Records
---
Amino acid sequence: MDVQQIYKDAHALLEGHFKLSSGNHSQFYLQSAKVLENPRTAEALAAALATQIQEQGIAIDTVCAPALGGLIAGYALASALDVRYIFAERVEGDMTIRRGFEVAKGEKVLICEDIITTGGSAMEAAAVIERLGGDVVAFAALANRGFCRREHSSIQSKNNCKLPHHIPFFALADFDFAMYAPEACPLCLGGSIAVKPGSRGN
Ligand code: ZN
């Protein structure tokens, strides 16, 4: 499965001059929602991810996704794994589990995102699950931004990866493109102005 091509075909790999949520600049931006607008594509990607996880023999009771980014990928993955699905959401900045979702003591939970960058939101969701007594046994994402080491890839974790080394991380592809501090951004030096993804309808 050529995930990079799927992103390109769905116009989900945007090229331009972007200001990322980290404050860094990049020539590219991944908009997974564009890939997932086709439910059949979402199902196919989730099935491939589920196969990787099952081949590793990891038992999962529940998939938990941090909203908003992980919602669709998490739901599709839970369906492919045939397990329960819950989501975590931010309330006044803090990740929480609401809506009557319960987590049993020792319940084996996989945290699913659309894209793992440094894994910050995934780790916040993992902390909530563990506080409730659950056991976080794996992380998964459709795409890996290249900061964390995933199974089946030669990319090594960088210093800013927040995922723990002892829990497996599954993803379908690496999108390891360059990011720049604003003062060192070649696109800025070339005179262009970075835009926040979303500010022009993307
Ligand atoms: Zn720039």
---
Amino acid sequence: MKHLNLKQILIPAVIVLSAACKQEIKEEYTMKREIFGEINGKKVELISMTNNEGNTIKLTNYGATLVWLEVPDKDGNKENITFGYETLEAYLRGDPYFGSVVGRYANRIAGGKFTLDGVEYELAINNPPNTLHGGPGGWHSVVWDIEIIEKEGEEPSVKFTYISPDMEEGYPGEVEAEAVYTWTDENELVIEYKCSTDKKTVLNITNHAYFNLHGAGNGDILDHELMIAAGKFTPVDENLIPTGELRPVEGTPFDFTTPHIIGDRIEADYEQLRLGLGYDHNFVLDNKSEPDAVVYEPESGRVIEMNTDQPGVQFYCGNFLNGLEKGHGGKIYEYRSGLCLETQHFPDSPNKPEFPTTVLEPGKPFTSKTVYKFSVK
Ligand code: GAL
């Protein structure tokens, strides 16, 4: 077990005097690396990072996964608010997407097929009749390499890298993927991606973290309030494939341009809610102002502010959760007990030339950045 006090020398413990002259000791930023297990001879680690506010996230290189994220409520009570498991074995048996990076193509590709430069590529069908989140052996299920990036006077980052071989899961081109996580003293989870290829291919990469601001496993998310700065969304067919339409949200239960309680309209008589079994749709971000999305839960007072440079976000509210998954502390992840804001390109873009392109070309790496900032009000 390695224990790094990265800022020990740079940033000594800070004593903050509040207006009431009460003393609070700010904790030092720490990082801890432990062995989580082994897969095919490759070490899997659990990396814990505690920022100067004393708030901890945990990551593993299995699937470049966010395992744990603990932040206080408005009374200062800390709780883990993201879905995860306590052991690597549980990750192998359980829901493959809790907190993981999904790729090479996040969300669905219709019929598991696409054509690039006149060549048709066939992918494994793992969500009949479609390919979901890269395929059965997607990037959520591989062991990534780890590099710790230390920056003077700044929080450290964990850089996960994975070389996805040519034709892996049926996709052309060897892709070098990087997912870099930084957990700041301002309680921001910053995720940066960089992917390059040696042959033309398609790419859509995101993180699939589920959040519940009451704490993971503490009831549903229907009482959470949500804002998404998206004037349009992409309606789907019965197989959850976008029809190609960019539909204005105005006057529909998909209008989150001003904050709405998620449960208020989820059972509305609206075809897209029936097809999606609730909210499970790509929102076309306006990308005009910040933030792109805000989640607020009044009881705990916890807030997530999300910002991204991606054109879309999949708002999924756990419609496929069925109470069979037990996570941290044996807590059960019930139906609609977690929500995801998966920043992305639009689903099935390889078959929708009218959507922003997801083609990745040699010499033109893809980069993107998403920030989830946690606070209380
Ligand atoms: C989401 C997707 C859902 C479901 C989920 C995994 O990204 O939108 O339809 O497949 O992943 O259970």
---
Amino acid sequence: MSKPSNKKEKVDFIREIIANDLEIGKHDTIITRFPPEPNGYLHIGHAKSICFNFGIARDYAGIDARCHLRFDDTNPEKEESEYVNSIKADVQWLGFDWGEDLYFASNYFDFFYDCAQHLINQGLAYVDSQSPEEIRTHRGNVTTPGTPSPFRDRSVEENLDLFARMKAGEFEDGSMVLRAKIGMTSSNMNMRDPVMYRIMHATHHNTGDDWCVYPMYDFAHPLEDALEHITHSLCTLEFENHRPLYDWFIKNCPVPAQPRQIEFSRLNLSYTVMSKRKLLRLVQEGHVSGWDDPRLLTISGMRRRGYPPSAIRSFCHRVGITKVNSTTDMAILEAEIRNELNQHAERRMAVLDPLKVVITNWPSDTHSERLEVPNNPANHEAGTREVSLGKELWIERDDFMEEPPNKFFRLGPGRSARLRGGYIITCTGFEKSDTGEITEIHCEFIPDTIGKDAPDGVRCRAAIHWVDASTSIDAEVRLYDRLFSVENPDAEEGGFLSCLNNDSLSVIPHAKLEASLASADQGSVFQFERVGYFCTDSVDHITGEKLVFNRTVALKDSWAKKK
Ligand code: ATP
Ligand code: MG
């Protein structure tokens, strides 16, 4: 597991609150939590929450500071252990460790039930036999107060009896609920006698058929936090209006601690959708190949795409923690990826759209030279490697033009360019097929020009990448682009599926790669010079047998131009 960077965290308003709580002696322990519901794979929004919550725990070395990984698995219908396993793997891959602190909210079902009974005994909860429809209409709206349920004044005994029978399975789904008795006139809709428990005859992944009543999030979450002695329960802004209810349950239930909820703004990213429900549709309807499709900003998709976890952490750090809702430009994430890979990815040469070059003045058909080239000019410690050069090469088709305009500095009839790390070559002719396609070009190399300036009379202003044809290897290269063609797919009139980018994946079945890439392992990332950053595909690449590379990110932001 890679170690998180020790970059000093920005002091955001929540870190200030925590520092102050320690200073005034309100706490001597800091406990945060990351509480995913296991109903899908994690995405980059969750990464922000993970980096934040685990990051705070890491801030404090001298005191007991921890971050719990808690599965909020109180909803029996949508949860699967596949999701539990993927979430654990994703948190670890991001560089964080929950240690002993792994919890499942479903292990607290008895405690929730006890708290509900306690509230009934205090006259603070009642069983409502209205239909869900009636409950909804009687809640009123922001301008109209709600109407009390006709069942609101049931006696404690009757409520205890009905609640026990709800639990025992005597009643059908939807026939009754347990509600908190707070008031129907509050201006905060969340406080109008919110539902605490509903009847669901469903099998739960952990508790099986033990329960047929399940707690609502707003009731369960504060109790989970309190049971685990969470000091600061950090959540996104949508929950700001739920905080009075959070505090009400903490105040009125027999809990062992007083956690404090603090909200921050969620991460929104342009050109993507983040809700798990929408991601699930993309997966289930086959718009992508799975949760780990490299075009998705799921953590598993980013891993398969070759995004380094350190770059994701830097991105979250850069976005920061505030209370202002905003949308972050995808280009910022991509800039972090490039920045990280520029320093650490070794350079290789690969030609994606190959055009044959024949060097007509080469000493012989079989003559081959070995050139020493740097693995990473940005990092001398990366060393050098040898690449072979023979009579025939592959270059990129668009590095040659039959009738080049003045500003085109690469190859054309009579023009010269340098082979990266090698000789300068001059184009002397080309061949065309019947259909007018250039099939190969002819060049002469100029001896003694490796690492040296062009001789007098030769104009050479560009260095192009190339691959020796006799030793090159074939690979499948997958070019990924943004999955959506508009900045805000959620706002699209025809729905987010109506603006999928049709060019988000293009497959090049036979790219030509330099021979050293035959041994590329699972998980390696390279810069293909002048082309972009590429990693081996974690599913389909088999070292030395079937080479499959994913484009992690292009070298430049091509979207900035389009906009
Ligand atoms: P989604 O809305 O994408 O389905 P969710 O909020 O329902 O996500 P949970 O599993 O409940 O998903 O989330 C776990 C934690 O991650 C919560 O604390 C939640 O606030 C946080 N989280 C989810 N999405 C984001 C986001 N976009 N930015 C920051 N934090 C997020
Ligand atoms: Mg949720």
---
Amino acid sequence: MTSVPGRVRPRRLRATPALRRMAAQTRVVPAMLSLPLFVRDGIDEPVPVASMPGVVQHTRDSLRRVAVQAAEAGLGAVMLFGVPQMRDATGSGASDPDGILNLAIEDLVAEVGDALVVQADLCLDEFTDHGHCGVLDAAGRVDNDATLVRYVEMARAQAAAGAHVLGLSGMMDGQVGAVRDALDADGRTEVAILAYAAKYASAFYGPFREAVASTLVGDRRAYQMDPANRREALLEVELDIAEGADLVMVKPAMSYLDILADVAAVSTVPVAAYQVSGEYSMVEAAAAQGWIDRRRAVEESVLSIVRAGADHVLTYWALELAGWWDESRGL
Ligand code: PBG
């Protein structure tokens, strides 16, 4: 950096909205955003998620309608999560072609075609009766390699249903390679993989557990990353890219902007960030109390994630942000 000779007055470019617009270094556009959506089996009306004001569990019909809105708003994608009625030890509903998630993928692809990217969560926690992201061994631990077999079955079902992007969120070692091999062997070379590469064992997933009616007792620290670790994120990213990830993700976002910046600096594939349920609920709760300006906080939070290096952001505010978007100003 050259030394600044005292003639530059940084405030000059902050003086008017027009100057600020001209000088802004980061812009958020709807195409960068993905809206996470929940679809629940066996309901006739959308069910509000109490811990996430404004978020609902969708019926298959209301899900289709919101996907059309997302496409019309110019969003980049939706990320779909299923909430089944029945759960079992191996999460069999996840790979059942008639399971709620796979049916909903089919619905969405039929509805929006190529106007919107359909991403699907590929993980077992919504489908297992114990709530873990994999199958358990005799000692009750998540069995990495037995889980990979289930992920491959789930990937085949999601690809058959027409998903464009599979979001591998289980944090098993080797999951990207196992799924990529299976997709390629089936001739599904066009199906992309979004690897939740640096996914931390975070308290900020709390409200999501209600959204998917998770039955988990305990935590996921034996497979998700330790919040204390920074270098390890690069190891995970390197492994996932080597195994064939088309995009890599950092999750959560706001408490992990250092990780996001590190990953963005080295990744050779696009970098996504997931602004998770707890991040959403904290802002909503504070705004409901009148303690912060809701719109400004929402915009600033997503802008910061993009500034840190995200090319793609999953956020529960995606649709609302697109509504606020002004082509000439960005967000
Ligand atoms: C796992 C999954 C989780 C989230 C997305 N995918 C839960 C977890 O890992 O505990 C959390 C997303 C959020 O909090 O918004 N299927």
